[in-house]
Amino acid sequence: xxxxxxxxVYQLLEPGPVVLLTTTDRGxxxxxxxxxxxxxEFTPPLIACVVxxxxxxxxxxxxxxxxxxxxxxxxLAEKVVAVGNxxxxxxxxxxxxxxxxxxxxxxAPPLVQECFANLECRVIDTRLVNRFNLFVLEVVAAWRDxxxxxxxxxxxxxxxxxxxxxxxxxxASKMP
Amino acid sequence: xxxxxxxxVYQLLEPGPVVLLTTTDRGxxxxxxxxxxxxxEFTPPLIACVVxxxxxxxxxxxxxxxxxxxxxxxxLAEKVVAVGNxxxxxxxxxxxxxxxxxxxxxxAPPLVQECFANLECRVIDTRLVNRFNLFVLEVVAAWRDxxxxxxxxxxxxxxxxxxxxxxxxxxASKMP
Lengths: 176, 176
What we know:
By secondary structure, chain A is an alpha+beta fold.
């Protein structure tokens, strides 16, 4: 994997793709699907996300304050849905679904080898966790798979309906 | 416009489209573009968003605690970028760019007639405004233009590059 400069990380998440989120607790890694996330700052890259109390990952994230956000291309859509349909308490989802955990550089939770990008994150603010399950994360390292040249991401519209990335248009914007 | 049931609102924002945000201050409406938003809760629908202190809309949103999130289809892309390229202090962006403000039902800021969906919002949590410019909103009314049947949204990848919605795929998901 190639390192992504941290000031470019927002370009990966700002379009709103479905992502995977990995955590580790008691030496065991888990993975969930997540669509409720947004950028909060460019540099250092900050991300907000909502991880429901009902998700097995919630306790691990709150306790260890580390996670990896992995971004899958459309070719992984069936595995992404399988991750969402399976409960981490009972199952090693990586083995059961066929995803490969890879050690990260700065956090305990693993990268997901099959994803085209992986963001290593630490929790930096928990003030909105009790009311909203909302965590603020800082990206401390970011990676990209150079073999996946033009990945098309998926965007969840509810109940298993996903929009796949279509064409790209470029307009003269003053915004980063 | 047709009313959207509030429990269905998340389906409009979860895919991560670029949106417009309207505010009102001293009897004058303003509009900005925004990509940093996410769903926080299904029902009542809660949204988090980041409005930079540097944006003219920031003070209006903090002071009056109301806004409208309007979702444009790709046909409005040039106007969306023009909104982002113009500063609201100097210009009536609606008139200059050719967008039509329409009175909302429960908040002072206007709907945007040309957008296929409009969400009337009130600010319900400001604890992360000082550190992150992050507002939590509750959607109190939502509208959809029935004439725009299958709108394709745009997703910002940085510096005026947008991905347009492509095909839709449906998988057997247990998730809402």
